[in-house]
Amino acid sequence: MINIQWDKLGFDVVPTKSMFKATCSQNETWKNGAIVPYGNIELSPAANVLNYGQGAFEGVKAFRTIKGNIVLFRADKNAARMAFSTRRLCIPEMDTQFFMDAVMKTVKDNIDYVPPYGKGSLYIRPVIWGTSAGLGVKPASDYTFMVFVTPVGPYFKKGIRPLNLKITDQYHRAAPKGIGNIKAIGNYSASLYPLSQAKDEGYDEVVYLDAADGKRIEEVGSANFFIYKDGVLKTPSLSGSILGGVTRDSVCVVAKDVLNIEVEETDLYIDDIEHADEIFCTGTAVVVSPVGKITFNEKTYEINQNEMGPITKKIRETILAIQREESEDIYGWLKQIR
């Protein structure tokens, strides 16, 4: 009998029943794999992923909807991005159907951990590591693909409220022509120290500038960035160092098609923050989170009187309504777990 206090869920790991595991050697294709009990894994201290960071991951969510269904939201986009990430990292390219089957099997076997309608979601973490032992800097010979799940609530501890962000010009998240546009494990380690500093100063997250000249806004540490001004919604263009988020794409689509808002993928600068009507960030974990304050070089900009703006609210509600089957899924974004 599962004993989870659904109303108290945060964004933390809750041990579940099982996980999916498959292995593959270099120059082979992904096949087979099986559901195994959830638990710790064993790795050599010389495993490639531990020493050289050869690994990629995804974040997907499953929802229990108002209709009583359990659905995945745009998992096909995550499958395609994992295929792209594995190619870039010299990992045997992930087959998108294999990815989808593994995710579906894992969710089905942990169906009791999907929170009730409106109480959260089941966060799904597909991850690939180079697991063979080696000393030289080169791709691993053997790889492990796993999918584990955990029920989650809000990403930010204090729930949905306008975020207080800090822009840094002391650190960069990713470099042009590097791996900032894939979901590589190593990308996130670079953000840990700036984030820790920001949290000690009372901020929720960090906004990073581009590494080329330090003038353009790129991303929040774990999310994409949007500005709304005078009827136009703008987000940094995918220049090669920005991750093409699934929620980012979903926001662009619904803003344009459903809400009739003009959308521009373009360069954004700090001056754009000063004059913004609304600002928000997006991601699988954070969904659509409003931004209330942004500080740069000791100057603080307050956005929409530190309140969630009407456009941000409408976009967030529209995305959530699709995920929970409260409105029609006109794009075919949902895949039902059967």
Residues in helices, as a percent range: 10-25%
CATH topology of the largest domain: D-amino Acid Aminotransferase, Chain A, domain 2
Number of helices: 8
The proportion of strand residues reads 25-35%
The CATH architecture of the largest domain comes to Alpha-Beta Barrel
* Gap from first CA to last CA: 22 Å
The chain-level structural class is alpha+beta
Mean pLDDT across every amino acid position: 95
CATH C-level of the largest domain: Alpha Beta
The low-confidence runs, each spanning 5 or more residues with pLDDT under 50, are: none
Fourth-tier CATH superfamily name of the largest domain: D-amino Acid Aminotransferase, subunit A, domain 2
Q: Which shape, going by the Cα principal axes? A: globular
Q: Taking Cα atoms only, what radius of gyration do you get, to the nearest Å?
A: 20 Å
For the secondary structure, the number of strands is 17
> How are helices and strands ordered from N to C?
EEHEEEHHEEEHHEEEEHEHEEEHE
The largest β sheet comes out as: 9 strands, mixed
Task: Supply the number of structural domains.
Answer: 2
